[in-house]
């Protein structure tokens, strides 16, 4: 697994605004201190078509021991939650002691009552207290301090 993660790195550097964009959605990290951040392509790289559902990207912030599992989604929020949960389950052993966070950037509106759905409760459990956030605008900016 470690070698697949390394092979699928889009970049690993100290840029001030590491980001990914797909289908009109963007996830960006505001990195004012310019600490090292890695962006790893998960879907169709670390895991292939036959490996089941997976999220789009994983951002590693080694200095903070923090991971951001990112799904850039059209409108099916529940599918995005499941994709991140499945990816987390399969990669967690590579990152013992890290903080796991989930981010879904959706094009449509977030359905009311989503925070009480069993899928999001399961994702919160898998994240071990890490933040789970669903953002309904096309761009999500995460600040790391």
Task: Explain what the structure shows.
This protein has 145 residues and is α/β, with parallel strands linked by helices. The chain has one domain. It has 3 helices and 9 strands, in the order αββββββαβαββ. Strands 1-4-5-6-7-8 form a 6-stranded mixed β-sheet. A 3-stranded mixed β-sheet has the order 2-3-9, with no helix packed on it. Helix 2 packs parallel to helix 3. It starts with a helix and ends with a strand. The mean pLDDT is 88.
Q: Could you give the count of β-strands?
A: 9
Low-confidence stretches are none
Oligomer: single chain
H/E series: HEEEEEEHEHEE
Overall mean pLDDT: 88
Beta fraction: 25-35%
Radius of gyration: 14 Å
Termini separation comes to 29 Å
Report the total helices.
Answer: 3
The structural class is alpha/beta
What layout of secondary structure does this protein have?
Layout: H1 2-7, E1 9-13, E2 19-22, E3 25-30, E4 37-41, E5 57-61, E6 66-73, H2 77-91, E7 99-106, H3 118-126, E8 132-135, E9 139-143
Parallel strand pairs: 3-9, 6-7, 7-8
Antiparallel strand pairs: 1-4, 2-3, 4-5, 5-6
């Amino acid at each position: 697994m470690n070698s697949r993660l390394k092979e699928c790195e889009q970049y690993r550097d100290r840029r001030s605004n590491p980001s990914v964009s797909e289908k009109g959605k963007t996830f960006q990290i505001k990195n004012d201190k310019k600490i090292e951040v890695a962006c790893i392509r998960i879907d169709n790289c670390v895991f292939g078509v036959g490996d089941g559902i997976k999220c789009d990207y994983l951002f590693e912030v080694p200095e903070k021991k923090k991971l951001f599992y990112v799904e850039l989604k059209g409108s099916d929020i529940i599918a995005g939650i499941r994709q991140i949960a499945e990816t987390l389950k399969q990669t967690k052993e590579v990152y013992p002691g890290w903080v796991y966070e989930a981010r879904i950037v959706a094009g449509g509106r977030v359905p009311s009552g989503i925070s009480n759905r069993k899928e999001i409760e399961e994702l919160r459990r898998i994240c071990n207290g890490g933040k789970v956030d669903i953002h309904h605008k096309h761009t999500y900016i995460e600040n790391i301090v």
